[in-house]
Amino acid sequence: MLRLTPILLAILTAVVMYQMSSWRLKRQLDAQSTPLDEPRLRALAKRMAKALDLPDLNVHVYEIPIINGLAAPDGRIFVTRGFLDKMKLGEISEEEVASVIAHELGHVALGHSRRRMIDFSGQNVIRVILTLLLARFIPVIGAHIADFIAKLLGSRLSRQDEYEADAYAAALLTRAGIGVRPQINLFRKLEKMAPAGGMPAWMLSHPKPQERIAAIERLASRWGSNPLTPLPKN
């Protein structure tokens, strides 16, 4: 039992840290968000809700200037004010912002928030086990190697979630008659706005835009559609 104590403590610590982080995020979102009130975006959200047989989508605006989307652990969907500012300037279309909403909805529908808590706990356990093992042979840098491997695993799992949410969004946008062209166009624009730099792909928490575009194009091709044109409504 004593041998398992560090592992159990690692799991408990990870769960507590995740719950505290979720609690802080909820408070921050409650204080800094407003309901989405852009008429065109609301209409697109309604179309996606109808495709899912839902009355509406619970979308809010996170009042921060950066460009991002967010799926909160409680199921709410957020797009940032930075995204809407770009939309008002004509740099991003309403359909492209709608693709962000569809992507974040994918995270909710696929249970990624819960999975991330499990993944985070698993990474913490791996970090503890590797640290204990490596410390016997390389005491000084063993902990750093263990931390690097745990982060590497976390990045890979995160990229998997992003691909899954992209696929969900592509299917939803197609079913809603919006098509995947806005999704593809947005990735091309985001690549120019926020390039990944020289970081290796296997260390990124999100796949590179070109890799995501290629995956969406493969899906559209499999569905027998042209990814560069919107599909007709069902």
TrEMBL record:
Q: Does the keyword Hydrolase apply?
A: yes
Q: Which UniProt keywords apply?
A: Hydrolase, Metal-binding, Metalloprotease, Protease, Zinc
**Which free-text remark accompanies the cofactor?**
Binds 1 zinc ion per subunit.
Chain coiled-coil ranges: none
In which domain of life is the source organism classified?
Bacteria
Q: Which Pfam families match?
A: Peptidase_M48 (PF01435)
One record GO biological process: proteolysis involved in protein catabolic process
Q: Which cofactor does it need?
A: Zn(2+)
Gene Ontology molecular function: metal ion binding; metalloendopeptidase activity
Example GO CC term: the record gives: membrane
User: For the Peptidase M48 domain, which residue ranges apply?
Assistant: 35-218
**Has the keyword Iron been applied to this entry?**
no
Q: Show the InterPro entries listed in the entry.
A: Mito/Outer_Membr_Metalloprot, Peptidase_M48
Query: Hey, which family's this protein in?
Result: Belongs to the peptidase M48 family.
Protein name (record): M48 family metalloprotease
